[in-house]
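just leaving the lab so this will be short. what follows is a protein written twice so to speak, once as letters and once as structure tokens for the fold. can you read through it and tell me how you think this chain folds. thanks a lot i owe you, the record is right below.

___
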Amino acid sequence: MKMTLAAARQAAAEGIVMLENKNNALPLKRGEKIALLGRCQIDYNAGGTGSGGSVNTEYKTDILSSLKRNGVETDEKLEKFYTRWTRRHPIETGGGMWASRPLFQREPEILKLPLRRAAKNADTAVVVIGRSSGEEQDSYFGPGGWLLTEAERATLKAARKYFKKVIAILNVPGVIDMGWVGEFDIDAVLYIWQGGQEGGEAVADVLTGISPCGRLTDTIAVRYADYPSSADFGGDDRNFYREDIFVGYRYFETFCPEKVMYPFGFGLSYTEFEISCNSVSMSGGSVSLRVNVKNIGGTSGKEVVQVYAVPPKSRLPRPEIALVEFAKTETLGPGGSEELVIKFPLSRLSYYDDKNFCLRVDKGLYKFVIGKNVRDRSCAISLELYKDEVIRKCKSFGAPTEPFERLRGFKNGEPVYEPVPVRASEPAERRKPAPEIEFTGDRGIKLNDVKLGKAALDDFLAQLASEDLACLCRGEGMGSSRVRPGTGTAFGGVSDRLLDFGVPAVAGTDGPSGLRFDNGDKAALVPIGTMLACTWNKRLVQEIYSRIGGEMLENHVELLLGPGVNIHRNPLCGRNFEYFSEDPYMSGAMAAAAMSGLNSKGVRGVLKHIAANNREHNRKRLNSVVSERALREIYLKPIEYALELSEVKALMTAYNPVNGVQSGSNYDIITGIIRDELGFDGMVMTDWWAYLGKCGGASTKNTAAMLRAGGDIYMVHSSAANNSGGDNTLVSLKDGSLSLGELQRAAKNILKLIIDLKY
């Protein structure tokens, strides 16, 4: 655990994003006295709530104590005031349920703070603003959510009145309104996110001298209403994805750059860097860039090099610019430099043509912009492609069933929309027959014989009766007695008969910010997904998940339920903290790094949640109505990138329906796109107690719909052997609506994963 926390502290420091630093407000000088304001200096938000963050830890650092350990002197009377006040006003948990903890906590009345006296001994006030986030609860447009509370505004106003310099640090799960920065003339602003149990130390490291090197993985707009999804986020039964492929900076940089306050990829440092591109070449379907980075400032630090592609005019509307690759330097001292070789395949330049059903790259002049953020033009190099290329031919899968209009562009300052192509046929009409394996009964073949290469998996499967296969397709949890106590699920050997065949019971537990044990056992809590992405450091993220993989081995856990790769479509989504970015490539690259780290230890992760899981309200029934193009270019693209860049063996479907069909039983997505087009042959599990079937008639019992769609295992039952959930697998097998081949195919995918694991 110690090694995990050392890497986590580094990641928390590298993920801090500095947006403002005027009047040499930072770094703080050793021995400098400051006034520290805001309850989150003590009640630091280390992570989110719910399955993605509720990790039991041995300790949690806080900002006040960490700054003092780093030699910063804080005003004693303010320190005593906040210490007493937080003890008298403990954190409100809402009873401990995931969705009941308030998003913000009460702050003391500013008139009671001894600010005038503190200002006589300190020039600088550091104001900590906090938010929480978690499952089943979205944020909201209002004070304590997107906006500051009156108490927070009063604190900033008083700090500006009494102190020469004001620093605001945001201990939050995602971006919030930033209009107050100019209103109160804040000198320095840092997003410190939620940095895990070592987050307080990381904040102190950066405030006292380690140069911040985090960069935004989301666009911060001037107003919430400027986000293109803001008008289509609040539905109770459905949300239309009218912005289509124009999500985040793809929208702002294409149509309305003036609505951006801080652009995608932005972040300041204590030093300055110069970026130059030495060459560009193309070979074997890949583009290669040689980029030199030089530290021209007076402080050591790291720089992020971001490569964006500006495409030529295409057959269909396209974003003005898109991220295709990035790299981070090592620490460079003043005058130091590093040459980075950045490579990416031509397929990164592709888009989905939903008129001809293919992934294509158009001929023309492509401009590669290399710089420090999406707006920076440190250098640019062009490359001419002389012929159109179809990267992959596709079939029409995932299109909506109900008509709506999507954004095509702007004319005279007004948005222009076009009708979205709708689905032409039902998934059942496209189902492929699954070959059946003839039942043989017990021939003495154990699963380990297959693992050792002594027997074929099909021969092992032939021994399993229908009841065994159906049981294999059920997971147990939470806290199944068949595996290590406190875990989220057990699958595989969840019956005595399956155990007799040598199928082990495999333990899986929640991530992705650390191992979550319901029985109170301790584990390392690492930074939230958004913060890990803000490091722009793939090697560091891989190292962190390698350390988590080591903890899994120590705790007899084989499967981590994470990382999450859903897109930050809207800043108010309650689970954005678990996910990485508004950008598909950033999300997929970070997920691949995490998976590679786990794989290095012989354990596995589960990429989740498929697909378009972008709101927590009514999450099991809220229909995401999205075009086939947006589904493939934005919401499934991180999965595609992760499959390309790493070895992925397990996926998890989402709660929400997509285009009228629940994610866990969505044939178009699971089989049509992910299995047949992307080539995924691993295990697909549902989220816990998910509904299956079509909107209006979905049920937790309809596992036959999951199996027909290409899903493999339903989560979860209290007893898989007794079918405690009352699923319809065997009934459907008997009436012919489910084939034996489909059931055997699912069982085979589960067994392949089990054979692959280190247990």
In short: Residues 433-517+555-756 form a domain with the TIM Barrel fold (CATH 3.20.20.300). The mean pLDDT is 95. The first strand starts at residue 17 and ends at 21.
